[in-house]
Amino acid sequence: MNRCKTVAAQQTSSTGLLQINVVSAENNFPIQGAEISISYKGDPSNVLEQVTTDVSGQTESISLSAPPIDLSLSPGLIQPYSEYSLLIQAPGFEPVEVSGTEILAQTLALQPVRMIPVADSISADVPIVIPDHTLYGDYPPKIAEDEIKPVAETGEIVLSQVVVPQTIIVHDGAPTDPTAKNHYVPYRDYIKNVASSEIYATWPRETIIANVLAIMSFTLNRVYTEWYRNQGYDFTITSSTAFDHKWIHGRNIYESISQVVDEIFNSYLSRPGVKQPILTQYCDGNRVSCPNWMTQWGSKTLGEQGYSAIEILRYYYGSNMYINTAEQISGVPSSWPGYNLTLGASGEKVQQVQEQLGTIAGVYTAIPKVTADGIFGPATAEAVRQFQTIFGLPVTGVIDFATWYRISHIYVGITRIAEYS
Question: DSSP string of 43-83?
């Protein structure tokens, strides 16, 4: 198919936003003072912007040219996002090159960067190259599978309940490709990456929720059934669109998608009487048709028509599909209390989150330190607001589900409870 590559949308007045978040691969600590040069992809010598990370390892939100938003709201031959190259340099770390950061109009893109300390590096890392978005590029269509796996008789299934894993092991290629690398990816980061690779962040919020639910349910089915491990492989899922979802090492994600995932990451899709998460397959609905599966472009249209996420899902998968929640979330120090913590709250849960915030504030010094006294006062609310500001959550000063588990996620990352690579 002949597709029209725009040259980074230089001829349009539309813009999107980019924020770059830089941490050390050694300990997940933010890197202050990293210098970043931004250029159009394919023209790295022509530097458009130069920015520096702050005490939280973040740049300001940079406005960059992007194609008109309408191009991402209907299928077409013109690339609906612009692509940029980044060069990230910091004293004591190997430089990082990123080629293909995708900017959509009227959308905040978040580019994560992990830098390797020079002392730990055998050789310089290869550049991160972000390929075409799946709705624009040419990728193999999904090979159809049964949505419910026959697991009752085998006795091979380890899990007796649905568990949100701490880490997903992603095989970056087809299952049978022995040269493909395995990546250890925090579960939520995996879902955010896939959703940012497979739908456009400009779509209606309910459409984004429906697609995120489908991605999570599919992924948790792979986890629950140990699909690949039971075939003798050493990974959870692949990055091949023919077998699973498109996951792209090092790609940027989008704030609107990130916030949805944080709010519902323990959810999946169920049918009555079926214990395992449903393997919810889908296709784009434009170049590929898939009867009885959700289509991505169709879900966008339904969202525009006012359908809720569950109405979109039932439109495609049937009226007996419903949203379930996992009984267990792995790798968290303490589970959410089941209600929001706000001014005036007190008790053990408040003290636990104060202690975690205190540890995080030792690394992210823009967050004020609080006394872990178990009393949710104005100082704790301010620390929560600063945390939410840094990590892209709605700034409310209230510890809701999304904030509680994002605090846990960051705490685990910087205290090395988890092994990420």
Answer: -TTSEEEEEE--TTSBPPPEEEE---GGGGSS--SB-SSEE
CB of 90 within 8 A of CB of 26? no
Over the chain, what is the mean pLDDT?
93
Is residue 247 within 8 A of residue 180, CB to CB? The reply is no
Domains of the chain: 15-129 (2.60.40.1120), 163-329 (no CATH), 348-415 (no CATH)
Q: How far apart are CA 376 and CA 330, in angstroms?
A: 26
Torsion-angle region of 218 (φ positive above 0: left; ψ -120 to 50: alpha; else: beta): alpha
Instruction: Please provide the DSSP assignment of 122-163 as one string.
Output: SSPPPPEE----TTTS--PPPPP--SS---TTT-----SS-E
Query: pLDDT tens for residues 60-106?
Result: 999 999 999 999 999 999 999 999 999 999 999 999 999 999 999 99
Q: What is the Cα–Cα distance from 304 to 336, expressed in whole angstroms? A: 33
Cα 260 to Cα 266: distance, rounded to the nearest angstrom:
11
Sign of the CA dihedral running 74, 200, 393, 349: positive
pLDDT value of residue 192: 98
Taking the C-alpha atoms of 277, 403, 376 and 383 in order, what is their torsion angle to the nearest 10 degrees? 160
In this structure, what token pair is assigned to residue 96? 């990082």
